[in-house]
Amino acid sequence: MPAVSSNKGKDNNKKKIKPSYVAHLLVKWNDAISKNNKKLSEKIEKEVESSLDLMEQDFEIVEYYQLTKKHSINKFKDNKLKELSDYGWLSFYKNFSMGLYEFDQKNYAKAIHYYGLAEPRLKARLKDNKKNRKDIKYAVFNYRLAQAYYQIDQYFTSMSKAIEARDIFAMNPDSKYEALECTILLGANNYDMKNLDQAKKFYLSALTDAKKYGYDKLISKIYHNLGLIHWLKKSYDSYVKAIEYFIKALDDESFADQYAVQTIHMITWLMYIIKDERAVQWFEKGIKIAKEENDHEFISKLNIVYSTYEEVSIEKILKNLEYLEERNMWPDVAEITLHLSELWADNKDFEVAYSFLRKHVHANEQTKRILEALE
Fold first, then answer.
1. Are the C-beta atoms of residues 167 and 146 closer than 8 Å to each other?
2. pLDDT tens for residues 37-89?
3. CA atoms 15, 289, 185, 18: torsion sign
4. Residue 284 is inside which H or E element, if any?
């Protein structure tokens, strides 16, 4: 089960628009400008400006907006951008923004592809190698890349990028939050590699600083991830402790706004494992949120849990697995099918267990193919 590795954004208690949504609008706006479509450009501009007020804080998207606004003014006045470097930044932000968008669509390989197109533009803008290593833009870029590699199980690459980003953030007194996000991501990578002691060290280090600076959302993310460590210990007592951490994580509203359905999915799963009668109540709570947010990933995942423990149906499990497979979410498919195989094997239904084990092997093969395509 992947840990919460964190997304950029300050603590807040209001539901806000994701930066990736605004970034995608900005790409469309730039395309309209380039095609000299003034009517469409003005329409998208209004949508962008109304969205900015509701967007989670992100200085990169604000800068992309400012460049696009300048591009629009100069284009429709038949002028050229005064600084040629602006074209380079626009090219960088287009690919970077597409990476953000594909990441939030859970198309992680596509996100890495776009980040790969963006990186040469970034390096061209920051020609001095010493400046590259210290510029906040480079830190933000490396952190985003680290997140994407983490999602496709490329842990060493993810950690390398996260360390690069953390070292730059640590130089800036205003980037303590971002530096802690990198530490949490390092913990998440170690957790997924089953280096639980090392993961716990990263989490506890981040927890100390998050409490010191009052970053409630990060505190909740760390509680969530500490819950995952107890999950892997696979005992009744450790499952109970994991549930306690997960429920504690939901105390922060800004965390719950972003991760509630993911955490509730885990609570539901664990409660079914320990035969807690509250499991179905948590399932109903999770599926309600997932449907309200149109989150088909967790609608499928929650339904898999329900069809495994509450109203057992192999057919419904396979139907919901199919959605994850269609979205190329192979690491998740691999984890779920391994669990299902072990469960049915414990119940002495070896034919079903074998069928899920075959799916597990296939999912691992597909993950490898995605990685090969990125090389």
1. no
2. 999 999 999 999 999 988 888 888 999 999 999 888 877 775 555 554 567 78
3. negative
4. helix 279-292
C-alpha 94/C-alpha 3 separation (Å) is: 29
CB 96 within 8 A of CB 120: no
- What pTM was computed for the model? 0.76
| CB count in 10 Å sphere of residue 141 | 24
Greatest CA span in the chain, whole angstroms?
A: 75
Contact between 267 and 227 under an 8 Å Cβ cutoff? The reply is no
Any idea what DSSP says for residue 4?
P
**CA distance linking residue 156 with residue 214, whole number of Å:** 30
**Residue 102: in which H helix or E strand, if any?**
helix 85-104
Token readout for 158 is 């993810």
- Which residues contact residue 243 at a Cβ distance below 8 angstroms, ignoring those fewer than 6 apart? 227, 267, 270, 271, 276
- Contact yes or no for 227/249 (Cβ under 8 A): yes
Nearest-angstrom CA–CA distance, 92 and 362 = 36
Q: How confident is the model at residue 209 (pLDDT cuts 50, 70, 90)?
A: very high
pLDDT digits 0-9 by tens, 122-160: 888 776 545 545 688 899 999 999 999 999 889 999 999
Beta strand extents in the chain (DSSP E only)? none
Q: Where are the alpha helices (DSSP H) in the chain?
A: 19-34, 38-52, 59-75, 85-104, 108-125, 129-134, 136-151, 155-170, 176-192, 196-213, 216-231, 236-249, 253-273, 279-292, 296-309, 314-326, 330-346, 350-374
Distance CA(189)–CA(185), nearest Å, equals 6
Which residue in the block uniquely carries the two structure tokens 């994407």? 148
- Rounded to 5 degrees, φ, ψ at 16 are -130, 165
Token pair in block for residue 317: 């499990």
Cα-flanking dihedrals φ and ψ of residue 234, to 5°? 55, 55
Alpha-carbon distance 119 to 55, whole Å?
25
DSSP letters spanning 103-135: HHTT-HHHHHHHHHHHHHHHHHHS-SHHHHHH-
Q: Are 286 and 299 in contact (CB under 8 A)?
A: no
